[in-house]
Amino acid sequence: MAPLPGIPGIPGSGLAKGLAVTLRTMTKRTVTAQYPDALPELPPRSRGVIALFEENCTVCMLCARECPDWCIYIDSHKETAPPAAPGGRERSRNVLDRFAIDFSLCMYCGICIEVCPFDALFWSPEFEYAETDILDLTHERDKLRDWMWTVPAPPALDPAAEEPKEIAAARKAAEKAAAAAEAARRDQGSRDDQDEGDA
Amino acid sequence: MDMTPDPAPPAQPLPEPRRLGPLARLAPEPMKVVLNWGRRYSLWVFNFGLACCAIEFIAASMSRHDFIRLGVIPFAPGPRQADLMIVSGTVTDKMAPAVKRLYEQMPEPKYVISFGACSNCGGPYWDSYSVTKGVDQIIPVDVYVPGCPPRPEALLQGILKLQEKIARESTGERYAPAKPSVQALTSGLVTPPAPAPGSGSGSGDTK
Amino acid sequence: MTETTIGIGGAAEGTDMVLNIGPQHPSTHGVLRLRLVLDGERIRSAEPIVGYMHRGAEKLFEARDYRQIVMLANRHDWLSAFSNELGVVLAVERMLGMEVPERAVWTRTLLAELNRVLNHLMFLGSYPLELGGITPIFYAFTEREELQQVMEEVSGGRMHYMFNRVGGLKEDLPNGWTGRARATVAAVRSRMGRIDDLVLGNEIFRGRTRGVGVLSQQDVHGFGVSGPIARASGVDFDLRRDEPYLAYGELADTMRVVTRTEGDCLARFEVLLEQTHVALDLADACLDRLTDLPPGPINQRLPKVLKAPEGHTYAWTENPLGLNGYYLVSKGEKTPYRLKLRSASFNNIQALTVLLPGTLVADMVAILGSMFFVVGDVDK
């Protein structure tokens, strides 16, 4: 056996080096996390459980349709509300009856959260929901709503990143409003044309 | 087992336990507490590592998470020396006989943790032609840990859950012949979604 | 299987004994099964029996649209989830003729290299474990945990990142992540020496691997072996250099293809160890480039329903374990007509049929472990 370059050919020196690593590590602090006593610090993006903000849900079924293993169950019915103004049309809207996610089936991909157009679904890093009965792993809407309280704020993005589209939209709206207000104030000052403020 | 529908089964005459000695049922209550305490904190685990979740299982046994702290000992040389089997990963139909056989080799009392979506109910592969839809179709499962794969802390929590269960149990109930049938384990999972109004109907079909 | 396999002490055909290893056996991480015909201590012939982990992923691909496929594709080789996702999205992007933003390209390269380190660390730890040294895997997993923390912060997942999307990545990096990633890469690199000291210099380890299980270049070509195993036999082929995808073309000065000529177990381990160092260097280079890049998007706006045009394409990537290819046939629908998966481990373990005969049973574990396979990658 040819000695490694840098390893002298003294028999047992390789073993001694390995033992030296062990000895050095012995003097260092342990890396063990004391889980049941100390909860881990999880990053906000961590995919632990899906929370439902059911007030935002419009029963569009996009999440249930896009789920790769179809583990979201949604039931709803239509309700018709009387027209707002007399003589107007009746308004119908979907009312959520059941929203359940089968976490024994869920593959934690986050597609449902991504496709949700009304921001009704969120990731929460919670992971402590092992059950002794598999039926309990299907979380109904109450439980999903409860997970909402554990949803952290999303992390700030890298400075080089593009603005998130929600912020971009909000900023555009704010700028537009500011411009409108500015224009209105100018109009107030000059009292030239009242319609210009709308532009 | 928690699978029985009503939490308090009627006090039936204790049947002859299958594998315990005749004295086991005569054991006084403090003795049972001691036995349960002993079982709880020396779970020799047999890892049925099959897929992705096995890596997280290994991670849970490594220095960062280290489940030996909880009394789970991952050095069982084989199923015959193990108390706890952790099925982590996809059970395929080809593998299922081996899972069952190894489970049967384990001595009583034995516990099973199903770790991850695949062994819970097939997970991402539930519509595959070659995957068993959940390990509970072939062996009884005590604790289901959700995740794909679950993080190591989730396994630790599952183990804590199992330990609570062991602390509560009595051997008489455990070995009563009225075991839940496979039917009880598998039936009535979900009601199929009603035909949704508008766009949603029929979308779950696989092509 | 029509033949009856019999354990040790059972009947035998002639004077040979048929020994069954697996499917659940500590030395075959995963559920590979080997059928060995023994003549005393020597292995006369060996046959890997695969299929215990066959999950039919290729068939499932056909029932899922392109976004959903990404989520399924990362699970066949669970140690290199990011690289698996990459192959699918590269194939779909090529079909669509889609240009990926530069920021996404560099971030993908970075994450792919971090994933490579994660994958290699697993084997750097588990291989000594199979040879009887328990300690190194603890060190390897300590490093893995650090890296997984970084990956989780950016993607939300510890193993299955699901961070690739057609046209880029899911979302941009969190603020300050690059700094933390750089610190972690530096920390992991500073501690890689421990594996050198613990394993590589160990006389017992070298004695058990040097000259054992020599894989010849002909066999590498014959079986289509790829990745670190092929490079350990002197086959100098690496897609990152020879057919650059992502940003590897611009990383040519950092990119080093590690090769050995011996082809034995030790050479395979050395290649893996050195590749880890290279991957860490590449990650640093990517981080450098990421800071210099102008601000920009990280993904492309996709149509509501993504349909690949009719046609077919083949995208291959240098996965940590070897060549990983996706042959995508589309009929212009939102699901692929066929997505064939060429996975590295499947070809790599076929070489066992020529590697094992003639060796001792005691060396079988050493050879098997040095093939660095993932069973899901074998069986798909």
Describe this structure in words.
By secondary structure, chain A is of the alpha+beta class. Chain A has a domain at 49-148: Alpha-Beta Plaits, CATH 3.30.70.3270. Helices cover 29% and strands 16% of the residues of chain A. In chain A, strands 2-3-5 form a 3-stranded antiparallel sheet. By secondary structure, chain B is α/β, with parallel strands linked by helices. In chain B, 30% of the residues lie in helices and 11% in strands. Chain B is built from 7 helices and 5 strands. Chain B has helices at residues 29-40, 52-61, 96-105, 117-121, 152-168, 171-174, 182-186; strands at residues 43-49, 72-73, 84-88, 111-115, 143-145. Chain B is globular, with a radius of gyration of 19 Å. Residues 1-10, 13-17 and 200-207 of chain B have low confidence and may be disordered. With 380 residues, chain C is α+β, with helices and mostly antiparallel strands. The longest helix of chain C is centred in the N-terminal third of the chain and has 29 residues, at 102-130. The model of chain C has no long low-confidence stretch (mean pLDDT 84). Classes of the chains: A alpha+beta (199), B alpha/beta (207), C alpha+beta (380). The interface between A and B is large, with 43 and 48 residues.
